[in-house]
TrEMBL record:
Gene3D superfamilies: Spore Coat Polysaccharide Biosynthesis Protein SpsA, Chain A. InterPro entries: Glyco_trans_2-like, Nucleotide-diphossugar_trans. This is Glycosyltransferase 2-like domain-containing protein. Residues 11-135 form the Glycosyltransferase 2-like domain. It holds the Pfam family Glycos_transf_2. Signal peptide: none annotated.
Length: 369
């Protein structure tokens, strides 16, 4: 199939592993793209269900689909294998249990062409099969249609996803990008490197990806209470931070540590009650490694999680557990109190006199009337 010079081929790499219930919807969404020049490279990563056969059936009836069958090696390896088979000038990635809205690649390509950027990124909505909810923080990061450099918009490093972006293949290869293998959370090290190595990257406010909510416990992001998960998370944070510090901008590093690197810690803090001793020790070690010299009280976390982060750093397991259990029981906003020193959190399960005032303090925009 041939296209005009102004219509470069987009190669979409789709890693697949045991997703027979979701794969048809994912592939249908890709083949329904309004962007005309598309190839879909499906990598069947040793699936034990009918996923490989489903992919083969799509390839048999649509020449835009090609399938590569491999032994099971994990998501990063499957994506890298797919990259060895692409032929397009432009690259995209889609997970096999999600959906890409029809105009996504047309929108991303339009901004890529307009700006001359090395890649373009768009917003994301969570999808439960019926309802779409745009992630508020993604909406904020993608507020304007723009062309950026990382020093001008370092918070965008928090958009770590692989699948809401369109890359120039020449940039990808010249920048030496690939996905880490044998580890979870492989998106962040690679996307971080893309941001800091790009001459320019584009931003669009459009939702270009529908990220499926899965409730069956099989999603990687639903396994945070495991030691392997936490080890991998610290490893990918370490890799990403090394890339950012190597870039050499104090501003970018500060924003990255405070607002990006700390961004998902609250999801781990809620696992503190009932966690194993080994998991707790690993959590403490990681918090001290990354924020020991610059406490999480300076981070962009919500107030109660800044407090919890401080308690973790101090090794106060019982108090951190009590705070997280209290928040779970509360089911709503944590109370606040005004004091002569200023407004602060009011958490009755710990003695405020035993806590650094900065760990309880509220910022002006956090104070409720």
């Amino acid at each position: 199939m041939k296209f005009g010079r102004r219509t470069p081929l987009i190669s979409v790499v789709v890693p697949v592993y045991d997703v027979e219930a979701y794969l048809p919807e994912a592939l249908d969404s890709l083949l329904a793209q309004t962007y005309p020049a598309l190839e879909v490279v499906v990598v069947d990563d040793g699936s034990t269900d009918g996923s490989g056969a489903i992919a083969d059936a799509y390839a048999a009836r649509d020449p835009r689909v090609r399938v590569v069958h491999t032994e099971n090696r994990g998501l990063g390896a499957a994506r890298n294998e797919g990259l060895r088979h692409v032929t397009g000038e432009l690259l995209a990635f889609a997970d096999s249990d999600d959906v890409v809205p029809p105009d996504a690649y047309a929108v991303l390509h339009r901004q890529l062409r307009r700006t001359g950027a090395d890649f373009v990124t768009g917003s994301v909505a969570r999808w439960d099969g019926t309802t779409l909810t745009e992630l508020p923080w993604m909406r904020r990061l993608h507020k304007h249609r723009a062309a950026e450099v990382v020093e001008g918009h370092p918070e965008l490093l928090g958009d770590v996803f692989a699948w809401n972006k369109l890359f120039r293949r020449a940039f990808w290869e010249n920048a030496g990008l690939s996905w880490p293998e044998g580890i979870r959370y492989e998106d962040q090290p690679t996307t971080t490197a893309a941001y800091v190595r790009a001459r320019l990257f584009g931003v669009v406010p459009d939702v270009v990806y529908h990220w499926r909510v899965r409730y069956d416990g099989s999603s990687i992001t639903q396994q945070r209470s495991s030691l392997d998960d936490l080890r991998d998370r610290w490893t990918t944070k370490r890799m990403s931070l090394a890339t950012v510090t190597g870039f050499g901008s104090d501003k970018v590093t500060r924003v990255f540590v405070d607002r990006v690197l700390a961004g998902d810690l609250h999801r781990y803090f809620i696992e503190i009650p009932g966690c194993s001793d080994e998991w707790w020790d690993l959590l403490v070690a990681g918090v001290r490694e990354f924020w020991g010299s610059r406490s999480l009280v300076h981070s962009g976390l919500p107030p109660v999680h800044r407090l919890t982060g401080w308690l973790v750093q101090m090794g106060r397991r019982e108090d951190a557990t009590a705070v997280m259990e209290y928040v779970a029981r509360l089911g709503g906003p944590v109370p606040q109190v005004r004091t002569p020193a200023g407004p602060r959190l009011d958490v009755p399960v710990i003695d405020p006199a035993s806590v650094d005032p900065a760990a309880l303090a509220l910022r002006d925009f956090e104070v409720r009337a």
